[in-house]
Structures are given as structure tokens and as C-alpha cells.
Design a protein that fits this description.
The protein is α/β, with parallel strands linked by helices. The chain is built from nine helices and seven strands. Strands 3-2-1-4-5-6-7 form a seven-stranded parallel β-sheet, sandwiched between helices. The chain starts with 13 loop residues before the first strand and ends in a 7-residue tail after the last helix. It binds coenzyme A.
């Protein structure tokens, strides 16, 4: 993976990345490890984690996989405990665990809506809350919440995910204010469609790809590496006076249209 950052920009840091086995969060995990950060990744399924942990370890950092569901407080406590015992502490938390599918509100059951809110929004709260004592002990704690652009306009078929991501953006602002006094910065990164991810494979049709390319001011989708670079900025000392911000990284796409998913 190529990077625009100096070697070792996260050396000595210890990160937990939920959802870190696949997609955008795998890219963030690999970028952090390449920058010298020890990394724990978690997910509901070990098969999503093991191949990525091998890649992380090959970069020469301490790496571990922890299975757990962010919806279950007991799982979350165990994930945090294993992370801290394996890595020796926790400096950076990336809340990336998420679930999504396309369904119009009229076709969505209460449990369908609630499931996505439980994973995305309540999961972000659960893990942040459990990580707080360790981030506080770090003295330079950072939380990065993975947001989206769905919630910025009215995105068809995404009432559940958009509500969850809007809640996450709100949580980012509140925790930034409440935890600033503990030396903890809390920010978000909001990707638009990102090439090579499961979300785009499932949610974006071939026609929609053309529409995105035509409408995006920068003329294409993001790469996973571009989201990882923005995440690296927000989690590094380069952003040491940045907190409470959700950084949109979508080439300006959402400014042009909310209806580019082709659904
Ligand atoms: N359309 C409408 N409702 C759906 C749905 C769809 N495509 N997929 C799931 N649901 C509903 C289910 O019907 C269920 O509601 P019900 O009990 O009223 O029928 C509810 O959501 C929970 O579904 P379930 O499959 O039991 O939940 P889960 O906890 O096992 O998994 C997800 C939930 C969101 C993670 C699952 O949809 C999934 O595995 N998605 C693919 C992986 C993913 O989302 N990756 C992230 C990409 S951004």
C-alpha cells in the first residue's frame, strides 16, 4: 500500500478497529499497521478476521483478532479486555462495525430498522463507552467513527442506515465535548461510495457507477486507500487540534446528488 505519510507516523500507538477484517476498515487497519501502529481488529465472525490479522502481522506490528458483536455489552467488554491485554493499552478506537441492506421504509420491519441502528449507532456507543477508561489512560486517546453521506440528503432505501449514521455524527459531537477534558479527540470520517467494498458491490448498480462518475466533481469513486489516508490524518498528531468533526471524503459527490445509488 502506498502512503503519503511519513514512516512511523503512528509508531507506539495501539488501535482497536471494529469491522477491521474487511472493506474500508481492513484498509484502515493495514494503513495504521504500515505506519507502525499495533492493531486489534474485531468482528462477529473469525473468518472475516484471520486473513487480515496475518497481513497485519506481516507488517511487523503486534496484531490480534477478537470475535465479538458490538450489540452485546458482554462481548464488547471482552473485546476491549483482550485488546488491552494483548496490545498493552489502547490509544485509538475506530468504530467501523456496520450492517446495511437496501429496503424502502414501507418494506422494512421494525426489527430490520432496529437491527441496523443497533449495529451502527448503539454499537458505536457501546464500544466507545467500554473503551473510555483505556483511552483516558492513554493521555492521547482518539476515537474515529465511520460515518457516511447517506444521511446528508434523502437517500432512497436507506432510512435505517441514514438514521443510524446521523446518530453517529451527533454522538461524535457530544463525545468530543464530553471527553475533550480527558485528552480524547472524537472525530468521524464520512465516505461516499468506495470502490472495491462490499457495500458498493451490493448497493451500486453498473448504471449507477456511470452516474457517480459523471456527477462527482472529482469524476470517480473513492479508493479504500483514500479513506484510510483521511483516517490516518484524523488519528495522527497532524489533527491534534481537531475534534468533533466529521470529514466527508467523497470527491464532492454528495453536493451534487443524493440519488446516485440507482435504487
Ligand atoms: N430487506 C429488508 N429487511 C431485511 C433485509 C433486507 N435486505 N435484510 C435483513 N432484513 C431484516 C430481517 O428481515 C430482520 O427483520 P425481521 O426479523 O422483522 O424479519 C432484520 O433485518 C434482522 O435481520 P437478520 O438477518 O436476522 O440480522 P443479522 O443480525 O443476522 O444481520 C445485517 C443484519 C444487517 C448485518 C445483515 O443484513 C447482513 O448480514 N448484511 C450484509 C453484511 C453487511 O451489512 N455488511 C456491511 C456493508 S455496508
Amino acid at each position: 500500500m502506498t502512503t503519503v505519510f511519513a514512516t512511523g507516523v503512528l509508531a507506539g500507538r495501539r488501535a482497536l478497529i471494529t469491522g477491521g477484517g474487511t472493506g474500508i476498515c481492513r484498509g484502515i487497519a493495514l494503513a495504521f499497521a504500515a505506519a507502525g501502529c499495533d492493531v486489534a481488529i474485531s468482528s462477529r465472525r473469525a473468518e472475516h478476521l484471520d486473513p487480515t490479522v496475518a497481513e497485519l502481522a506481516a507488517l511487523g506490528v503486534r496484531a490480534c483478532a477478537v470475535v465479538g458483536d458490538v450489540r452485546k455489552p458482554d462481548d464488547v467488554d471482552a473485546v476491549i479486555a483482550t485488546t488491552v491485554s494483548t496490545l498493552g493499552g489502547l490509544d485509538i478506537l475506530v468504530n467501523g462495525a456496520a450492517g446495511n441492506f437496501v429496503a424502502r421504509a414501507e418494506d422494512l420491519s421494525p426489527n430490520g430498522f432496529g437491527t441496523v441502528v443497533d449495529i451502527d449507532l448503539k454499537g458505536t456507543f457501546n464500544v466507545s463507552r467500554a473503551a473510555l477508561p483505556h483511552l483516558r489512560a492513554s493521555g492521547r486517546g482518539v476515537v474515529l467513527n465511520i460515518s457516511a453521506t447517506l444521511q446528508l440528503l434523502g437517500t432512497i432505501g436507506q432510512s435505517h442506515a441514514a438514521a443510524a449514521k446521523a446518530g453517529i455524527d451527533s454522538l461524535t459531537r457530544t463525545l468530543a465535548v464530553e471527553w475533550g477534558g480527558y485528552g480524547i479527540r472524537v472525530n468521524g470520517v464520512a465516505p461516499g461510495p468506495v470502490d472495491g467494498t462490499e457495500g458498493v458491490r451490493r448497493l451500486v448498480s453498473a448504471e449507477a457507477r456511470q452516474v457517480i462518475a459523471a456527477q462527482c466533481p472529482l469524476g470517480r469513486m473513492a479508493t479504500i486507500e483514500e479513506i484510510a489516508d483521511a483516517s490516518m490524518f484524523l488519528c495522527s498528531d497532524a489533527a491534534r487540534f481537531v475534534t468533533g468533526v466529521t470529514l466527508v471524503v467523497d470527491g464532492g459527490l454528495w453536493l451534487r446528488s443524493s440519488s446516485t445509488l440507482g435504487i
